[in-house]
Amino acid sequence: QIVRFSSIDYATTIQGTGPDLPSVRDWPVTTGTFFSDKDVRSYAPVAVLGKTIVQKLFPYGDDPIGAYILINNTPFEVIGIMSEKGASFGGDQDDTVFVPFTTGLIRLFGGAYLNGLTVKITSLDQMPQTQESIRQVLLERHRTEDFNIRNMASFIDMISETQATLTILLGAVAAISLLVGGIGVMNIMLVSITERTREIGIRMATGARMRDIFVQFNTESAVVCTVGGLIGIALGFAVGFLLRAFDLNVVFSAGPSLMAFACAFLTGLVFSYWPARQAARLDPVIALSSE
Predict the structure, then answer these.
(1) Element (H, E) at 140
(2) Torsion-angle region of residue 25: left (phi > 0), alpha (psi -120 to 50) or beta?
(3) Helix axes 210-245, 273-280, angle to 10 degrees
(4) pLDDT for position 80
(5) What is the pLDDT of residue 42?
(6) pTM of the predicted structure, to 2 decimals
(7) Do 40 and 101 touch, CB atoms closer than 8 A?
(8) Which end of the chain is more exposed for a tag (fewer CB within 10 A), N or C?
(9) E runs forming strands in 28-130
């Protein structure tokens, strides 16, 4: 369908629906209002726009509320703007104009029947019972099974399985990254100990105990990994804000950041244990005689 405002034409999807769509689809209105039962009964020429439609028809920041748009040359008053829903497998959900289904049937679609009904349930456990109840009601009304009923249970299960697979995959990648990083820390510490053998011998000769040497190198490794963890978190937030600049939905939460920092810190402690132990067990005489 072609939607027009002023000199701008845009091809989009027009959906005739009832007043309960915001609650059924958990899709609230951010500006204005959604149409009411009275609008449906009176065949009111009112429309509620998705975010994409607002950006296309009102590119200069004009207030759409109260404006009249033409849908197939029929004027409709804009009374509301939906919140941003984002893209789905079926495309951009915000690229939609909602009108009362009675108005749509009479003025736009030229039909006498609805193409579909959307039902919201409170629990997935009620899905089979609810589906069968709807089926029986439709059979009583239609006298024949000339309809299809689809539920989202299988789709939700597929998404859950995909998320679980991605979680395992990302966990494996993170574990390998930590292992590689830990080995790198261990190698750096071993090189540092080799280059500082004489320093270790001097410290032992002046009264440092094995525990002091162990704590020194363990602390150095922990500090290096702590700084690296902070830099990683800063880079992660920077990339997140950059993605937001491209209108991608990015949510920041403290839990993953704290977990990432804790992993970096523990990597420094765990993988520096053996090098620090080697440094602490050096013979002071051999350490002092090294060049």
Answers:
(1) helix 127-142
(2) alpha
(3) 160
(4) 93
(5) 93
(6) 0.56
(7) yes
(8) C
(9) 29-32, 46-49, 68-71, 74-82, 87-88, 91-92, 96-100
Residue 290: its pLDDT value, please? 67
Distance CA(244)–CA(132), nearest Å, equals 43
State the Cα–Cα distance between residues 103 and 100, nearest whole angstrom: 5
Query: What tokens were used for 267?
Result: 């990597």
Two structure tokens written together for 184: 């790198």
Backbone angles phi, psi at 97, to 5 degrees: -115, 130
d(CA 104, CA 110): 8
End-to-end C-alpha distance for the chain, whole angstroms = 83
Task: Let me know how long the chain is.
Answer: 291
Place of tokens 């009111």: 44
Residues (pLDDT < 50) of the chain are: none
In a 3-state reduction of DSSP, which class is residue 143? Answer: coil
Ramachandran angles phi, psi of 88, nearest 5°:
-135, -175
Residue 271, C-beta contacts closer than 8 angstroms, at least 6 positions apart: 182, 183, 185, 186, 189, 221
Q: Say what the pLDDT of residue 88 is.
A: 66
230 three-state secondary structure: helix
Q: What are the pLDDT digits (tens) for 90-104?
A: 678 889 999 999 998
Q: How far is 271 from 277, CA to CA, in rounded Å?
A: 11
Q: What is the rounded distance in angstroms from the CA atom of residue 186 to the CA atom of residue 276?
A: 9
| Contact call for residues 28 and 116 (beta carbons, < 8 A) | no
Burial 242-270 (b: 16+ CB within 10 A, else e): eeeeeeeeeeeeeeeeeeebebbbebbbb
Give the list of residues 6+ apart from residue 156 with CB closer than 8 angstroms, or none. Answer: 124
Question: Residue 70: what pLDDT?
Answer: 93
Compute φ and ψ for 284, nearest 5 degrees.
Answer: -55, -40
| Token pair belonging to 132 | 């069968």
Tell me how far apart the alpha carbons of residues 186 and 190 are, in angstroms, rounded to a whole number.
6
For residues 10, 104, 89 and 158, what is the CA-based torsion angle, rounded to 10 degrees?
170
